[in-house]
TrEMBL record:
<dbReference type="GO" id="GO:0005886">
    <property type="term" value="C:plasma membrane"/>
</dbReference>
<dbReference type="GO" id="GO:0010039">
    <property type="term" value="P:response to iron ion"/>
</dbReference>
<feature type="transmembrane region" description="Helical">
    <location>
        <begin position="62"/>
        <end position="84"/>
    </location>
</feature>
<keyword id="KW-0813">Transport</keyword>
<dbReference type="GO" id="GO:0051980">
    <property type="term" value="F:iron-nicotianamine transmembrane transporter activity"/>
</dbReference>
<comment type="similarity">
    <text>Belongs to the YSL (TC 2.A.67.2) family.</text>
</comment>
<feature type="transmembrane region" description="Helical">
    <location>
        <begin position="158"/>
        <end position="181"/>
    </location>
</feature>
<dbReference type="InterPro" id="IPR045035">
    <property type="entry name" value="YSL-like"/>
</dbReference>
<keyword id="KW-1133">Transmembrane helix</keyword>
<dbReference type="GO" id="GO:0048316">
    <property type="term" value="P:seed development"/>
</dbReference>
<feature type="transmembrane region" description="Helical">
    <location>
        <begin position="193"/>
        <end position="217"/>
    </location>
</feature>
<protein>
    <submittedName>
        <fullName>Uncharacterized protein</fullName>
    </submittedName>
</protein>
<keyword id="KW-0472">Membrane</keyword>
<dbReference type="Pfam" id="PF03169">
    <property type="entry name" value="OPT"/>
</dbReference>
<feature type="transmembrane region" description="Helical">
    <location>
        <begin position="23"/>
        <end position="41"/>
    </location>
</feature>
<dbReference type="InterPro" id="IPR004813">
    <property type="entry name" value="OPT"/>
</dbReference>
<dbReference type="GO" id="GO:0035673">
    <property type="term" value="F:oligopeptide transmembrane transporter activity"/>
</dbReference>
Length: 231
């Protein structure tokens, strides 16, 4: 992950013909730093959860993470520059095209250009979903417990928008399995659900099977949304 973020920062963007005097480079550097920090924090929380389930000392987990992070901060830059000097990284016609660099560059350009570069009605959709999340959270917190439990969680609804629609399929099928398992054998389900869920979530999840079938049949699910450019 750290090498990927350094790739975004140090790839020779002069090949893409844009002005470095604007905020694009600053946005790319900031994005790389934030994503690296968030990635490390996410891994740490996962490790703490694993340590809790395996009765591991939290102090040893945190110390191990700190030692590994320090080593990574020293070793990873040297490894990246060795890789960067030895190969033509970032060349669109070369072996190492660095596609994420182009994606994040375009995102940075959109950020520099401001709201005018966004698709039509994009801000209105953002305002609407933001208002919905606030109202849903307030409704869930202020309503009686027997009513609030039926109010959807905006955080759970936002996850598929972030990671992709496949996550919805995995979580829906997993929730049905957990519900049925608790009905059949609640005690065994309480013990085994975390282990089974971990096995199903690892890798591409359950969605990879229907995705492969749709790909073989050359069928595209009609779930795309397009915006017309503002005149």
């Amino acid at each position: 992950m750290f090498l990927a973020q350094l790739q975004l920062t140090f790839v020779d963007f002069s090949r893409f013909n844009f002005n470095k005097n604007n905020g694009v480079v600053a946005g790319l550097v900031g994005c790389g730093l934030i994503k690296s920090i968030v990635s490390i924090s996410s891994d740490l929380m996962h490790d703490f959860k694993t340590g809790h389930l395996t009765l591991t000392s939290p102090r040893s987990m945190l110390l191990s993470q700190a030692i590994g992070t320090v080593i990574g901060c020293v070793v990873a830059p040297f490894m990246f520059f060795l890789f960067y000097k030895a190969f033509d990284v970032g060349n669109p016609d070369g072996e190492y095209k660095a596609p994420y660099a182009i994606i994040y560059r375009n995102m940075a350009i959109l950020g520099v250009e401001g709201f005018s570069a966004l698709p039509r009605h994009c801000l209105q959709l953002c305002y609407g979903f933001f208002s919905f999340s606030i109202s849903a959270n307030l409704s869930r917190d202020l309503s009686p417990k027997n009513i609030g439990k039926y109010v959807p969680l905006p955080m759970a609804m936002a996850v598929p928008f972030l990671v992709g629609a496949y996550f919805t399929i995995d979580m829906c099928l997993g929730s049905l399995v957990v519900f049925a398992w608790h009905k059949l054998n609640s005690r065994k389900a309480s013990l085994m659900v975390p282990a089974v869920a971990s096995g199903l979530i690892c890798g591409d999840g359950l969605w990879i099977l229907p995705l492969s079938i749709l790909a073989l049949a050359k069928i595209r699910p009609p779930i795309c949304i397009s915006f017309q450019a503002t005149n």
